[in-house]
User: Fold Oxidoreductase NAD-binding domain-containing protein 1 from Silurus asotus.
Amino acid sequence: MSSQQADYLERTSSVNRQKAIFSARVCAISDESDTVKRLQLEVPHPDFSYHAGQW
Assistant:
């Protein structure tokens, strides 16, 4: 693990993270550029939540 990654993990260690793993279905794939693809995911579980900017 790089020191940069360790620093990030330390700085965000107090941030609440969802403590579950959810299945997702790929609904769409599109090209953003020659080397980048966008995946649109559907997570049907009612307890799943996501806000833009989360990891």
In short: The mean pLDDT is 85. The CA atoms of residues 19 and 31 lie 31 Å apart.
